[in-house]
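It would be a great kindness if you could assist me with a short task in structural biology. The matter concerns a single protein, recorded as an amino acid sequence and a row of backbone structure tokens. Kindly check, if you would, that the fold set down in the tokens agrees with what the sequence suggests. Thank you for your consideration; the sequence and its tokens are set out here:
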Amino acid sequence: MTATDWNPLLRGEFDEQYWRDLQHFVAEERSQATVFPPRDEVFAALHLTPYAATRVLILGQDPYHGPGQAHGLCFSVRRGVRRPPSLDNIFKELADDVGCAPPDHGNLEAWARQGVLLLNSVLTVRAHHAGSHAAKGWERFTDRVIRVVNDKPERVVFVLWGAYARKKAALIDLSRHVVIESAHPSPLSARNGFFGSRPFSRANAALAEAGLDPIEWCIMD
């Protein structure tokens, strides 16, 4: 991971045996199969959203596993890539919640650049094999990222969609931070509690209550 303001906060992980084992595993996978996202985008979330700027953390599970989809930000795809159904549902809720017209692409970098950390729990995946890099060590690293964000003295809003993400609420100090939980936006569960959960307006209300600037959720370009 190249130097960012996250580096001194996470550096201790890089000396751990699990980290060496994890990097060896990913390198072996890349030598044998296609792995997403590309090597230089694995840590895109941490590069685009500095620790100092993080005001909201949205947690995903693992990267999209189709060609050209994953680029290091949870739920996001590059411009020109067809939006996955979960992202379409996120944009539907965004429109219903705060009136944002859906953009004609699925790139969420505009959120990341405002302090929304778009973090997956697992940062790599073998092509066409969802969950294939789970339980290899990434979760220990990203749990550390969550703990580091939890240590921030100012309020952070943690957005946890689905049962997997909601388990991470145990890492968060609710006396200082705010957790917004709901069903996952996937087509299998969106109608069971994601639609109507109003996460975007609730996140901004929680930031405003703490005297912090809101997120401009509407993606204009």
